[in-house]
Amino acid sequence: MLIKYFTTILLFATAILALPTIHLLTATPFTLSVRDDKHPAGAVCEKNDLKGPTQDYYLSAVPRFCALLPAAGKNLDGYEDFVGTVTLPRYSDSKKTIDWVFRISVVNPTSNAHSPQFISRERCETVFRGLVQEGVLGKTYCVPEGTQNVVVTAYTKTENVNPMGQIKWEMRPKRGQK
What we know:
By secondary structure, the protein is α+β, with helices and mostly antiparallel strands. It is 24% helix and 25% strand. It is globular and about 60 Å long. The termini are far apart. 19% of the residues are buried.
């Protein structure tokens, strides 16, 4: 009799476990939105980012800045930065402009000794173009919500070079602009 009782309970429990699970939905005080793969979290432009240039304007500025280097290239050491500013239209209002700063600097974080690094126009263009073309969505560029436009944001790339030095490639809006 006891075996019959346990068999009945076991069959009943198995039948209950086989039933589909029902999840009750409750109302939440907030709404959820789905993001697609093209616009992951952090990639939508913040209000301040909209002052930056579009990718096309940025890419047109790169050769203008790099042309400031001598045709034969230049050795940069830690005592002088190579800096230039190009005026570009803003994404948020193309009638307004933004001064966009390009900067190349050589640093040695371990000492005051700086070994010169050769920078050619070609290398300059390759690195600065790559910051956006191969950059990180949400870091080097963003996408205004509801558009397919690309707006460039400030970014600094640090490249380790021998012996124990670094080249910093920086692009950003000039400080103090409104």
